[in-house]
Design goal:
Elements (H helix, E strand, L loop, with lengths): L1 H4 L4 E6 L2 H9 L6 E6 L13 E6 L9 H10 L1 E14 L11 E3 L13 E3 L3 E2 H9 L4 E11 L5 E2 L5 E10 L11 E5 L8
Parallel strand pairs: 1-2, 3-4, 4-7, 8-11
Antiparallel strand pairs: 4-10, 5-6, 5-9, 8-10
Bound molecules: S-adenosylmethionine.
Protein name: Methyltransferase type 11 domain-containing protein
Organism: Pararhodospirillum oryzae
Pfam family, one: Methyltransf_11
């Protein structure tokens, strides 16, 4: 899908789940220089620091217990002048980050969720908290964001009834700037995105 949208000359995909990587390896039409790795993006030392002109982290950071940590690790891989694209679940209310309070069963299809089914974190971040988290990453120059209202997944158990599904692109400066230089924000959210 990324190849259909962007011109990719080289591509590195990483997933902690070997099955996801095996499925990726079966896909045709991959860019000439493709590496598909089984690993943890937070810990994998083979991913060069500041090596990528685009890092895409979709439906991943908020399925992790440490959303800020995985975003920082992804940002650390972005080259100067590059961009990180992230999806996040957002709310005008308080952030919901505890696994006990908000989770999603890892279960697909319409069958009832089996007993003891594995759970993933279902983090929903306060909109301002998320914007602040991303705009204060080192050397953020511009933040472009889009969001729309939707319902949580049917397999999620969460106190949040309405989720603002957001996709955010964070552009990195080519060189460090003075700390008081402004960050440019370009936000396209529903008008009631900030109303609890
Ligand atoms: C909901 S899927 C989204 C997959 C894909 N990005 C998409 O948009 O279709 C989340 C994926 O993130 C992977 N994942 C979660 N934490 C990870 C981590 N720390 N490092 C690498 N992969 C991770 C999971 O194994 C899962 O395949």
């Amino acid at each position: 899908m990324l190849g259909g949208r962007f011109t990719l000359s080289s591509y590195t995909g990483i997933d902690i789940n070997p099955q996801a990587i095996a499925t990726g390896r079966e896909a045709g039409d991959l860019p000439p220089e493709t590496r598909l790795l089984v690993g943890d993006v937070v810990e994998d030392a083979s991913l060069a620091s500041q090596g990528f002109d685009m890092v895409v982290n979709l439906s991943c950071a908020d399925w992790n217990l440490d959303t800020a940590g995985i975003l920082a690790a992804s940002w650390a891989r972005v080259a100067p002048g590059g961009v990180m694209v992230v999806s996040l679940r957002l709310t005008p209310g308080a952030s919901v980050t505890s696994l006990a309070q908000s989770f999603q069963y890892i279960h697909y299809g319409d069958d009832p969720v089996p007993e003891g089914c594995e759970k993933a974190a279902y983090v929903v971040l306060n909109l301002n908290t998320a914007l602040s988290m991303l705009s204060t990453l080192p050397e953020t120059r511009r933040l472009v964001a889009y969001g729309y209202w939707g319902k949580p997944s049917a397999t999620a158990r969460t106190p949040v009834e309405r989720v603002l599904f957001g996709v955010l692109a964070v552009e990195r400066d080519r060189a460090p700037r003075p700390a008081d230089d402004p960050v440019q924000l370009d936000l396209s959210f529903p008008r009631d995105a900030w109303l609890p």
